[in-house]
Design goal:
Elements (H helix, E strand, L loop, with lengths): L8 H19 L14 H12 L20 H20 L16 H8 L9 H9 L10 H20 L3 H4 L7 E2 L2 E5 L6 E5 L5 H9 L9 H14 L5 E8 L2 E8 L6 H14 L5 H8 L4 H4 L7 H9 L4 H12 L1
Antiparallel strand pairs: 1-2, 2-3, 4-5
Length: 333
């Protein structure tokens, strides 16, 4: 085949993962051992989904509780199906595929779509946790070598830069010193191709301090290593409150309980930014959409974590209507 689906390393990795899963699937299924586009129908989709739901434990599956490690999560299977549809669509556009049944595929079954509409557990740092993490002095950890202390400090700074700006990793890793004009980061978002301006003031001011610290050249590492080391940095800094999340493999509910640091990754920074701006600073949703580059509120809601303390503080700033009426009555007297 000629032409490419994407030059984004993250996207390429997704297609490689899908390819490997399809290879393993057809090796154990004689009906599809010579898989062609004409065979990609609803029966194929059901068989492939069943295979994924029964996949033997590997990788991140092994981090689940004992007895719940078999099978990919519904959310993950949905991403596989979406990736397959993208490949079929690209192939059709380039005249390799003349069959369109894939367009009818749903990423989730009707039952799973209902589950997905329920509140999804989101892991973010609170404003207090983010502040603590950003200001944490890793040099105090004498059991770590100076090199390790510096390494954790750098990965923490990368995370905090994302948490203060709300931007994707793909844009953070492409940041250029010439993109910074005064206290504004101006760039074209890699994923959406939208012209974006991020004001590095107020809540986002620490991001500019981070840039100055590294002379506007962030200490980048691969995303895989970042997602590994950021968990280590968060644990060292004491971000260890117990978190419970619910996920599904088919209809089976899986409860996962771990310290918060174990759930933290590059996207946690972006979700943290959204949650803090809305929960703690009550920023206009339209402005938050402009910062994150999301096109609609429905997508943005997937990034918002409920903050009980922030909600209580917000309601405490409102007035008791009975007190207002009492004041008015006393004035009238």
């Amino acid at each position: 085949m000629t032409g490419t689906l994407s030059d984004n390393p993250g996207t390429i990795k997704k297609f490689i993962t899908l390819k490997n899963s399809l290879i393993a699937f057809v090796e154990g299924n004689k009906k599809y051992e010579n898989l062609t586009f004409s065979m990609v129908d609803h029966n194929f989709k059901d068989a492939f989904t069943k295979y994924l739901r029964n996949q033997a434990p590997r990788g991140r599956q092994k981090t689940r509780p004992e007895g719940n490690q078999t099978g990919l999560l519904n959310d993950t299977i949905g991403k596989y199906v979406e990736c397959l549809k993208t490949f079929c669509r690209w192939s059709e556009e380039h005249d390799y595929n003349k069959y369109g049944t894939y367009k009818e595929f749903s990423n989730f079954s009707k039952a799973n779509r209902k589950r997905k509409k329920q509140e999804h557990d989101i892991v973010t740092l609170t404003l207090h946790e983010l502040t603590h993490f950003y200001t944490f002095d890793f040099s105090k950890l004498k059991d770590l070598s100076p090199q390790k202390q510096e390494s954790l400090s750098r990965v923490r700074d990368l995370f905090c830069f994302g948490a203060y700006t709300g931007q994707r990793w793909s844009d953070i890793e492409r940041l250029d010193k010439n993109d910074i004009v005064g206290d504004i980061w101006i760039f074209t978002a890699f994923k959406t191709k939208k012209e974006t301006e991020i004001d590095l003031i107020g809540y986002a001011a620490p991001a500019l301090d981070i840039l100055k610290k590294y002379n506007y050249v962030l200490p980048l590492i691969s995303l895989t290593k970042f997602n590994l080391y950021i968990k280590e940095a968060a644990e060292a800094a004491g971000i260890i409150s117990q978190i419970k999340i619910l996920r599904y493999v088919g209809a089976k509910e899986i409860e996962i309980i771990k310290p918060k640091c174990k759930f933290i990754g590059s996207h946690t920074a972006r979700k943290t930014c959204v949650s803090i701006l809305l929960n703690n600073y009550n920023m206009n949703v339209t402005h938050v959409l402009e910062i994150t580059g999301h096109s609609d509120l429905k997508t943005l809601q997937k990034y918002i974590n409920k903050d009980r303390e922030a909600r209580r503080e917000a309601i405490s700033r409102t007035k008791n209507i009975m007190e207002i009426m009492t004041v008015k009555h006393n004035k009238a007297i």
